């Protein structure tokens, strides 16, 4: 599993709306919410695709990751891995709930799925959707020993 985790590290990087009152016409507020949810889904998908793309530079990946600065050194060191070449993600679904979103995605190396139908989380920070650091740490955990930034996150979540 270590090569898969290295590949994935190197990549690093709506809620349903009911119609009001049974009417077949949407109110302006509902239309705005629907538009906002659709825009959020697109932004989440774009963040995940860019974060897990082998073509995205490490600095950009760090910007697409929640608390990305903490993972900068790890992202940079893995970016040069030969295993990282030709990787990408395909998002199959996004469910937005407030400032978080559940994401179902598959990581590919070339045209071969390396991790199928993984579940992760995106978070909105300062108006920008990002891959959650917990999602990255879950992937990195596949290699056995996650980096220090993940261990710190785990300590914060348990306190």
Textual characterization of the structure:
The protein has about 160 residues and is of the alpha+beta class. It has one domain: Nuclear Transport Factor 2, Chain: A (Roll). The protein is built from 6 helices and 4 strands. It has helices at about 1-10, 30-50, 60-65, 70-80, 135-140, 150-159; strands at about 85-95, 100-110, 110-125, 130. It has a 4-stranded antiparallel beta sheet with strand order 1-2-3-4. Helix 1 packs across helix 4 (about 70-80) and helix 5 (about 135-140) crosses helix 6. The protein is globular, with a radius of gyration of 17 Å. The protein starts with a helix and ends with a helix. The model is unreliable at about 1-30 (pLDDT under 50).
Which helices and strands appear, and what pairs or packs with what?
Blueprint lengths: L1 H9 L17 H24 L6 H6 L4 H12 L7 E11 L2 E10 L2 E14 L2 E4 L1 H8 L7 H11 L1
Antiparallel strand pairs: 1-2, 2-3, 3-4
Helix pairs in contact: 1-4, 5-6
